[in-house]
Design a protein that fits this description.
The protein is an all-alpha fold. It is rod-shaped and about 125 Å long. The chain starts with 5 loop residues before the first helix and ends with a helix.
């Protein structure tokens, strides 16, 4: 037995594959479970074969199967797909600081308040609509203040909306009516501009 080659110890040929070598080792170890000396001989033969195969592989005398050579490449986890970041907004920062995208509630609330004041003017056309304009200005200030909690800014925006609304009202209504525009029309145009300011600015 001392002169037996490692292949003879395992009972395999020198052309045996790695799976055959491993299977022979496991089978012999199972059959020789009571003989530690023989088990050690089998382990030594197995180690000797592995070392010989490794040496021959390094010398290029035996080919390495693709499934072994590239096993690490196949086992590698696929790289996650690169997600394309969303395009940056082209809106200038100073514009986005002033513009607002209102919710339905934020758009309907000022419309209801200002529309109610216009209705008041319609129901009482003989009264001068200065009170309704003052109440509309205060409502506009309050609604703008709710967004940013900046009173001065809210006041200036509301005042600008009132001024622009009056300019448009008199610039549109007076020429169309020949100089005798009803108060409801003037207030309606003015409050329309103020609604835009209140809803879409902050």
């Amino acid at each position: 037995m001392a002169e037996m080659s490692p292949y003879q110890v395992l009972g395999i040929s020198e052309e045996a594959s790695f799976e055959e070598i491993q299977s022979a080792r496991e089978q012999l170890l199972a059959n020789l479970s009571a003989d530690e000396q023989q088990q050690e001989r089998v382990e030594q033969a197995y180690d000797a074969i592995l070392m010989q195969r490794l040496r021959l592989r390094k010398e290029g005398k035996i080919a390495v199967p693709d499934r072994i050579r590239y096993a690490e490449q196949r086992a590698a986890t696929p790289e996650p797909e690169l997600s394309v970041p969303p395009p940056a907004s082209k809106t200038p920062r100073w514009v986005s600081r002033w513009l607002d995208t209102p919710s339905t509630t934020d758009a309907l609330l000022p419309a209801a308040i200002l529309g109610g004041l216009v209705g008041w003017v319609v129901l009482a056309p003989d009264e001068y609509p200065s009170l309704q304009l003052a109440l509309g200005l205060m409502a506009c200030i309050y609604l703008l203040y709710r967004k940013e909690r900046r009173f001065i800014r809210s006041f200036l925006l509301a005042l600008a909306g009132l001024s622009l609304g009056l300019l448009l009202a008199y610039g549109i209504a007076i020429p169309l009516t020949g100089g005798d525009a009803p108060g409801a029309l003037l207030v309606g145009i003015t409050f329309g501009v103020m609604w835009l300011v209140t809803s879409f600015l902050r």
